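PROTEIN DESIGN WORKSHEET
SECTION A - STRUCTURE
LENGTH: 275
TOKENS:
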């Protein structure tokens, strides 16, 4: 019998994710100051009453970082859930139905993927009102094209198996085959892909905020914090590097967990006959 152990790298990733989620959930109770509260002079150094110093407006950087975790993670998570729901539903439907439906969905998806994601998002967000639900929707629609591609690939592998053919012969509908036959047998690789898309959503949201079309001030998010404090780098102020490091650290932690999930999935596939 093969016993699966969690490697140290995965534990590091899990610890980083748990810490970020803890900050996001309990931000109002653990942040030393308010999200928008001006508490001192601009760009004060680390130490004293301000553990990480202050930002370009004199707000506590640690408090902004904690509140930024709530905004960044919640928006990225919402966009990832929505993109996965849309992408998996359309991709599984295309794989099970086949024929004209499959060709229509696939060619439209290829058309969307041919457009540079960042440029498309900047154009759409510049035209539409600056509202949070529009930002989440745009991120989800653009990311769902990548989800569609991998979802269709794994669904096609499962759709030709005997138990799916047996379900068709029993007269089961498309919905039954998708949710009761294909989805449970593709869950492991899809969970790994969900982690990758979540990491991408964090980076994509931070990019949009840095360019001024993501989370709008005075709300705190990590990409916007980098934008607000970037001018301080010229004077040797590290205020912009701290949220940038938080973005990189969370993305790395997510990828460490995803790498473990992908290795675990491949080992399970090759180890079914082990006793």
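SECTION B - SEQUENCE
RESIDUE ASSIGNMENT:
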């Amino acid at each position: 019998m093969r016993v699966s152990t969690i490697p140290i790298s995965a534990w590091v990733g899990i610890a980083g994710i748990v810490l970020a989620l803890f900050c996001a959930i309990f931000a109002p109770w653990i942040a030393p100051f308010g999200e928008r509260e001006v508490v001192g002079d601009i760009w004060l150094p680390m130490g004293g009453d301000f553990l990480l110093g202050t930002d370009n407006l004199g707000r506590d950087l640690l408090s902004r970082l904690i509140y930024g975790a709530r905004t960044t993670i919640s928006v990225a998570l919402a966009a990832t859930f929505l993109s996965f729901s849309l992408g998996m539903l359309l991709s599984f439907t295309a794989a099970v139905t086949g024929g004209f439906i499959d060709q229509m969905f696939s060619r439209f998806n290829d058309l969307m993927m041919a457009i540079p994601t960042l440029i498309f998002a900047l154009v759409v967000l510049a035209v539409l009102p600056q509202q949070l639900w529009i930002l989440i929707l745009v991120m989800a629609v653009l990311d769902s094209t990548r989800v569609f591609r991998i979802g269709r690939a794994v669904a096609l592998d499962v759709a030709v198996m005997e138990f799916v053919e047996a379900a068709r012969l029993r007269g089961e509908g498309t919905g039954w085959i998708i949710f009761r036959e294909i989805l449970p047998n593709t869950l492991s690789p899809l969970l790994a892909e969900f982690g990758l898309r979540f990491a991408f959503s964090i980076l994509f949201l931070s990019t949009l905020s840095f360019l001024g079309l993501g989370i709008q001030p005075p709300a705190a998010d990590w990409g916007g914090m980098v934008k607000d404090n970037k001018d301080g780098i010229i004077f040797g102020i590290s205020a912009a590097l701290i949220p940038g490091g938080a973005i990189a650290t969370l993305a790395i932690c997510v990828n460490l967990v995803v790498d473990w999930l992908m290795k675990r999935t491949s080992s399970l596939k090759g180890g079914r006959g082990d006793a």
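SECTION C - NOTES
Residues 61-97 form the longest helix (37 residues).
Residues 268-275 have pLDDT under 50 and may be disordered.
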